[in-house]
Request: fold
Amino acid sequence: MKRFFVLPLLAVGYFLNAQTIGNSPYAAFGIGDVKYDNTTDVSAMGGISTAYIWDFNNNFNFSNPAANKNLELTSIKIEGSNENNFFRSDFENRKVTKHSSYLSNISVSFPLSPKVKFGLGYQPYSSKKYSVLTNETSADGVIKANLFSGEGTVSTVQAGVSYQITPEFALGLRSNYYFGNLYDINELTYSTAELINGYTTKNKIKTFNFTLGTAYQKLLATDRKLTLGATYSFGNTGQLETQYTNSTYFYTVGQTKNNETIVDQKFSQDKNLIPMELSLGAGYGRDAKWFFGTQFDYKKGKINFLPTDFSNENSFKFSAGGWYLPNYNNFRSYFSRVIYRYGAYYEKGNLVYKGSNINQFAVTAGATFPFENRSANRMSGIDLAVELGQRGTLQNNLIRQNFVNLKIGINFADKWFMKRLYD
Reply:
């Protein structure tokens, strides 16, 4: 059983690690834009997941591995994302539009016993794909051109297990294996020069870390529930290997480097790649009817290769959202069994440029459409989510990013791997 699931997911992670995920120029700094822990149903609720225990039996919460006491079915999820970014800068009144689509999650989860639940999955963790060209013309007509570009993806294979200690309290642990390559290059040339000076940074990532989770759910009144949750991510056990290369060269047809001369080359290792993360959440709801939750996330990390004008600060995020289900037993009205989701968030980013924070906020919405006219014990269906938001600022000639992100996921859930009591 273990080989059956682990090997295909590792293979998927290897081949999809090269998929192109478009994002903003702010991905140039550090590990890029983080895409992780944002499945379709969670995205539609503003990102709340720490105190999110799904009322039904078909969903595994990887963000908080302790919040899975209701999982009774084997669940297979496949999800994709479509990102639409609209960039604007007051510098020369520039506007650019970028689109990308990619596989954002594939996972399988199932109960090992009434108290122990297990999940295994693949997700892209972060990505960068950007290209920024600046030109300056001196008084004597010499043109100076600077090209900043980068690409790459860091992916993760994750395994989570939860244990229900009491009917109200559970603990969970998730391990994450991160792998991938990130490339950044700064190319400088002059109209009077024959060669290009290029400074390339290549980061090779292979590392583990762990997330410890807790979840507590208390019945307060008839079919009313209070849910509390917390997670803490820690323990980078691998290495970030970085190679810096300063060289001169020129391009021929097909963008092939020729006559490359290495001016300087350095190599370094660092374990401080994935930041420490802490998350606290609380929620309140009515069983199988509605739920509302809030969440606070805190990240502490450092970035060793920032330009002089930028600084790196601790970041935090406030999220709120929930879901509403009109009547899951109403088989005469399909839309009474559709689950409607909503949410919003505000994030103080870790990047600061000349006193301007690169912050982000968004509103979200979505729905889960069940496949069949059967009870809640079989809830295979399609998840949809939309996220509308803004990142960055126009101050100091920076870039403001408006985005519309669409997500779709398919969840196949059924009673697999269960022993039959009768033939």
Q: What stands out?
A: The longest strand covers residues 196-221. The domain at 2-414 is CATH 2.40.160.60 (Porin). The helical segments are 2-16, 40-43.
